[in-house]
Amino acid sequence: MPTSIPYDSTLVLGNIIDPTKIEELQELEEAEESRNLLSDHLNNLILSNRNFTTIYNEMVNMGVEDEDLEKLQDEQKKLKKEMSKTAVDLGNETIATQQKMRAIKLKQRKKKIGKIPTSPIDFTQSEIKTLPLSSDSMSMDVQYFRNEGSETGAASHAATVSAHIASSFADTANPKTSSGMARSARQAVEKQHENHELEGTIVVTANCTHKQAV
């Protein structure tokens, strides 16, 4: 996700736009492109690691041979190394991007502020139409997570359920919302462990979008 979206206060519906305003915003966008690509790559790696953990736990529950499980662990170690390297690259690129952004903004501020031409549109005679912003969609998933029953089984079980929910909504919800849902699910599972002996947990996730959503 971009750290910021370039904008200009004169870019208002119905206004006459100075082409140089668009060029300035494009310059800012290009300065952030490398940083945004690294950020997206890191987010994808984090999501992949969560999915990897879920797959590994499922393989354990299915009784897959230890030799094959070790191969999965080796692949996940490679994934984590790539995550670490990408995180370092992202930090370096973020600093470089901020320096480039600052130089561009200082250059743009030196330009003389001009007047904004009056809009040729008579809004009192114009009809406002509501257009779809998205599309109607629905996706559902059902997963069963078995409780291992060991000393650390309760904590591991709650963590697995939480990680699954976080990864399920990582692409459709903002990080604060997805982490909040994962935290609530973990607390609910831990509370159930305190009061009951759980064999496992069935997790049903559903995500819907509406074309007229605001």
| Mean pLDDT across every amino acid position | 82
Run of helices and strands: HHEHHE
Strand content: 5-15%
Rg over CA atoms: 25 Å
Major sheet: arrangement of strands: 1-2
- Number of E-state strands: 2
Total helices: the number is: 4
Question: What structural category characterises the helix and strand content?
Answer: mainly alpha
Which of globular, elongated, flat, extended, rod-shaped describes the shape?
Answer: elongated
Main sheet: strands, sense, barrel? 2 strands, antiparallel
End-to-end C-alpha gap: 20 Å
Pick out the low-confidence regions.
Answer: none
Proportion of helical residues = 55-70%
Question: How would you describe what is shown here?
Answer:
It is a single chain. By secondary structure, this protein is mainly alpha-helical. It is 58% helix and 9% strand. The chain contains 4 helices and 2 strands; from the N terminus they run ααβααβ. It has a two-stranded antiparallel sheet. Helix 1 runs antiparallel to helix 2 and helix 1 packs antiparallel against helix 3. The longest helix has 44 residues. The protein is elongated and about 70 Å long. The two termini are 20 Å apart. The model has no long low-confidence stretch (mean pLDDT 82).
